[in-house]
Specification:
The chain is α/β, with parallel strands linked by helices and about 775 residues long. The chain has 25 helices and 21 strands. α1 packs across α4 (about 125-140) and α21 (about 505-520) packs parallel to α22. The chain is flat, with a radius of gyration of 32 Å. It starts with a strand and ends with a strand.
């Protein structure tokens, strides 16, 4: 439930009162005004607590106008306080509480208003605390004040109680000027001060809020129509729809049932109830609602297409009947000239063409709908229906892709973006080439002098090709075999590209990746990079811990280019100047969308330095990922983002380790380099809808599928299992490999654009090269993983 808002205007800090006594206004605010109001259910704010960027004066005016209640401390003749009090009482008839220290001499202009005086020793003043608490309950309602009363008498501030016509003229003018969500919110803040606002005005404002998808506030607006509109089925119906769209299915159903009791033969209410039941997986009830509504209004395209789709979802054996209904709809819409330019008819035709397998015509009709003004909500309704039909077996791979495209296109058009990448139905797979631990650099440092031995195996000579040539041949062969174009490929490098994180090593990594991209025909943006422990400058922490990642970040920005680096690492704001503040390690997060996949690169080297060598991700980083996904998901959930893939360096789970024959404590190998917070990382990734986690670090491969359940999930698991694919070392020399281990990389083929239970989802192939001279890359294992 949204909290009421209370805005406080008062002097700041310690100020002298008129008798010269010093008074701590901040202490009075923090110890009395704020906590008591919070206990009363208010969201309390003072202008110095506003954190969002913007003009402070504008923010103060907005708060004075929109706040449910304002408290003003007039203990001293402070010009800012008096100015802001005047603005509040001129703009709003909302409640205002005036407080002052005992002994304050009030100016004439406010002396006739009720003032709540408090003792100088305010911490012990229980009488004021009780009176203030009582005032918070009373003053929340619209109140009289001399400024607003005078303006109302002049007709400047209309009140529906005294001049309904003047109010409606003012309301209509404000509504016509409001074209953004914040303007509509401001209009609602102004409107709700008045009792007995006309129902027609509330319906109009709620409809405009719904168009910008502020569903919860639209429902709040219509709540203000009661009790006057208690017998109005239209108000109940619209409020029920808005509650449903905000996620309150039960509240929405209750309102809709009330609307149906008031008007049992309203087909629109029956249709909305059908949609509510569908979203609650009550398919039989939904089919019944749609059937009843279609009999009442047989000409309604919405009801006819909803009934056809629900026939498939509730009774799959009636697929042929549903297809016949879709064919009738397609023919009717496409042949009816009067429906040209009707975006809803376009959406119905798009869905019918899609179900009948004519994807190209479905795309064209959906594009027509968007051009003709289909809102994100309308397009989203069709996209949701197609997504559900795909889950029921109707063109499942194409359904997920089509629904995602339709949602993105409608949202882009609403934001004023002309186009989005077109949907091209295809079963072409997406290939992920996963490499790790290539280790360009010497074997270590000794007294700051690089050792001679290289940790990288593929140093070119008469018998050895450089690694980029080896991998380019492998990648191109796989692409040819799978009939994949370069745009269908992603290279993932899960850390430890260098060995000591020095600029010279990272320059070699840059040249290797650039040459590999050029040979395969890839853009640098098709490479996903995350840091490994050997990519961190271990010498830096000795004098400045914040510089551990300088070399790595400079290399990454050079590889991607400045503009693309900012796009891929949106949380990194460092300008790469020596004296400026570095980003926090938990801000080094990579984000990109490639093909059907959304890639998120995590930094598992949060605590890596010359003394600590283990993996850690942390809740701050996971929360940042969750916020980015919520703000940037194509349609609001994981499935709209296709397949979510997390990448990090360290391994979540211990590997099977060899034990000596005499199983003593000294024979047991303890792996201290795993991700220390693996359990929470695994659980949060699962709940955020990630299907795949790629990592390196261990220099040997591993593949597993896993999930972490909570106690409250004893019956239903709310996340999804995580496929964890660990890559061995692609390029380390023999000294960096365990006995019988080979160099390794993985080829992951994404078989579907959406993970569906029971369907083939992912193919994982291990490619390995033995250590002996003349060895070639060979496949050592291959798996097909179900969704």
């Amino acid at each position: 439930m949204k909290l009421k808002t209370l805005f406080v205007i008062m002097p700041f800090g310690i100020r002298p009162l008129e008798d010269g006594t010093e008074h701590d206004f901040d202490a009075f605010y923090l110890r009395i005004l704020k906590p008591i109001a919070q206990d009363a259910g208010f969201d309390v704010l003072r202008v110095d607590e506003v954190v969002q960027a913007g003009n402070v004066t504008h923010q103060a005016m907005q708060s004075l106008y929109q706040a449910d209640l304002v408290v003003a401390d007039v203990s001293v003749p402070n010009s800012n306080v008096y100015y802001e009090l005047g603005v509040r009482q001129a703009l709003s008839s909302g409640g205002t509480i005036l407080v002052a220290a005992a002994g304050t001499i009030l100016p004439f202009d406010i002396s006739n208003q009720r003032i709540h005086f408090y003792e100088r020793d305010f911490a012990a003043d229980t009488v004021f605390a009780e009176r203030y608490r009582d005032a918070l309950g009373v003053s929340f309602r619209p109140a009289n004040n001399p400024v607003h009363n005078a303006l109302s008498a002049l007709g400047v501030a209309p009140d529906p109680q005294s001049s309904r016509a003047a109010f409606e003229r003012e309301f209509d003018a404000k509504l016509s000027r409001a074209d953004r969500d914040e303007q509509l919110v401001a209009l609602w803040s102004w409107t709700r001060q008045f009792p007995n606002v006309p129902t027609s005005a509330l319906l109009a404002l709620a409809e405009r809020l719904a168009k910008v998808e502020d569903w919860a506030r639209a429902a709040e607006v219509l709540q203000a129509a009661f009790p006057a509109a208690q017998g109005d089925y239209e108000v109940h119906r619209q409020r029920g729809f808005y509650l449903r769209m905000s996620g309150d299915f039960q509240g929405g159903a209750d309102e809709l049932e009330q609307a149906l009791r008031l008007n049992p033969n309203d087909p629109e209410t029956l249709g909305i109830l059908g949609g509510t039941a569908k979203r609650q997986n009550r398919y039989a009830d939904a089919l019944d609602y749609y059937s009843r509504a279609s009999r009442i209004a047989p000409g309604s395209l919405y009801l006819r297409v909803a009934y056809a789709g629900m026939l498939i979802l509730s009774e799959p054996a009636r697929l042929a009947e549903a297809q016949r209904l879709y064919d009738e709809l397609r023919t009717f819409v496409d042949d009816t000239e009067t429906l040209v330019g009707d975006y809803w008819a376009d959406l119905v035709s798009a869905e019918a063409h899609f179900v009948l397998g004519d994807f190209d015509s479905g795309i064209r009709r959906a594009e027509d709908a968007i051009r003709n003004g289909a809102s994100p909500a309308a397009a989203g309704s069709t996209a949701e229906q197609i997504r559900m039909l795909g889950a029921a077996g109707v063109h499942p791979a194409e359904a997920a892709e089509f629904a995602r495209w339709l949602t993105q296109a409608a949202r882009a058009r609403a934001r004023g973006v002309a186009t989005v990448e077109p949907f091209a139905p295809s079963r072409r797979p997406h290939l992920i080439f996963h490499i790790s631990d290539v280790h360009f650099g010497p074997s270590g440092l000794k007294d700051s002098t690089p050792a001679v031995a290289s940790m990288h195996r593929f140093n070119p000579d008469q018998n050895t090709l450089p690694l980029y040539e080896e991998l380019a041949d492998e990648f191109l062969a796989a692409m040819k075999r799978e009939k994949c174009a370069a745009r269908d490929v992603t290279i993932v490098v899960s850390g430890d590209m260098a060995y000591t994180g020095q600029p010279a090593e990272l320059a070699m990594v840059h040249d290797f990746l650039a040459a590999l991209c050029a040979a395969v025909g890839l853009d640098h943006g098709q490479v996903v990079l995350v840091p490994g422990n050997h990519d961190i400058d271990w010498t830096a922490p000795k004098h400045d811990l914040g510089r551990r990642f300088d070399n790595y970040l400079s290399f990454v920005r050079k590889f991607y280019g400045k503009q693309r680096f900012q796009e891929l690492f949106p949380l990194v704001t460092w300008n790469f100047e020596i004296g400026d503040e570095r980003p926090e390690p938990n801000q080094l997060i990579y984000f990109s969308r490639q093909g059907p996949c959304t890639f998120v690169g995590l930094n598992s080297c949060i605590f890596e330095d010359d003394q600590n060598h283990y993996g850690y991700v942390g809740l701050r980083q996971l929360n940042a990922v969750q916020k980015w996904l919520r703000d940037n998901a194509a349609g609001g959930d994981a499935d709209d983002d296709g397949i979510r893939v997390a990448v990090m360096h360290h391994h979540l789970h211990p590997y099977p380790e060899a034990l000596g024959p005499a199983r003593t404590a000294s024979n047991i190998v303890t792996d201290m380099s795993t991700v220390r917070d693996a359990g929470i990382v695994e659980q949060r990734l699962s709940r955020m809808g990630f299907s795949l986690l790629l990592h390196g670090h261990k220099h040997k491969p591993q593949l597993r599928e896993t999930s972490v359940l909570n106690r409250e999930e004893s019956t239903v698991h709310v996340g999804r299992s995580l496929i964890v694919s660990g890559c061995g070392s692609t390029g380390v020399a023999e000294s960096g490999l365990e006995h019988n281990q080979s160099n390794h990389f993985a080829i992951l083929k994404v078989l579907r654009n959406r993970r569906e239970p029971g369907a083939d989802f992912l193919q994982v192939e291990w490619r390995e090269m033995a250590l002996q001279a003349g060895a070639e890359w060979v496949s050592s294992a291959r798996w097909i993983i179900k969704g």
